[in-house]
Amino acid sequence: MSLFSVSVILSPPLLLCLSFVFSCLYVILSKNYYVILFKNITFAGIMVEEALKCNAVVSILDTDVEEQIFSAEFTARLEGVKLPATKLELLVKLLRKTIKEYKKVNKIAAEKYEDLLRKTLDEYHKRRDALSADEATVTQNEAVTAIIDEATKQALDLLNALGEEKESFRGLGLSFEEKAFYDILLHLRDKYNFEYGEDKKVGSLVVNERCKALAKKIKELIDVQSTFTDWLNNSKIRADLNQRIFFCLYENGYPPQYNKEVFDQVMEQVENFKSCGES
Questions:
Q1: How many Cα neighbours within 13 Å face the side chain of 126?
Q2: pLDDT per residue over 83-94, tens digit each?
Q3: Mapping DSSP to helix (H, G, I), strand (E, B) and coil, where does residue 199 land?
Q4: CA triplet 30, 34, 36: central angle to 5 degrees?
Q5: Which candidate, 177, 178, 196, places its Cα nearest to that of 186?
Q6: DSSP letter at 214?
Q7: Which pTM value belongs to this model?
Q8: What single DSSP character describes residue 196?
């Protein structure tokens, strides 16, 4: 095709039309580019925000359970988690972790808090399930938030109560480990309904001097056996310890009438305590 032919075909009116079309395409493509660019920037911002939230959550999960979880500083860090559902999930994970650690020493007290946490979560799920899935309204969303907030409050109360429980040995004049045996002695006495010593209420504590004395004796027997090298892996020493504790309970009238189940459950706490020493 000659240059003349091209000039004829691309006449001024046609050139004007083509110029208009290309201008429109440029505007449309430019607009889409900036829309895409804006969306990418917005998405990147959301990703950064979520990453910061995740970092905050991971930081809290890495908290030293034994030393920091019951502090005011920890509570302040927890408040930094703004999403209600995330905060509740985080609290539940930390409670389970803390209870698991506590159970290594004090089986009976830890099981009480396991039960309380389970009841809190059962109530939470029951209330959530009661909301109709077909009514996704503002009112329903507010109700869900209220349910999460209430469950979070209960979980925080449980965390605070657990903190007080773990420190209660000081008020009783016992060591942390002796308190574990004190708790099982009181629990079994009440479970099997027999008398042993006299309870006195001192603030929020139940003080029973006879159970305190027996708990100390049990712990002393363990301390004596633990002086032997590799005592936890020595079946003879462990069997001797079990026999000594059995006679200690019998000689101290616990329980007043022989009850094999009581002896077995006290020994479960002893075995739990020894297993903790191995871990």
A1: 6
A2: 888 888 888 988
A3: strand
A4: 115
A5: 196
A6: H
A7: 0.69
A8: -
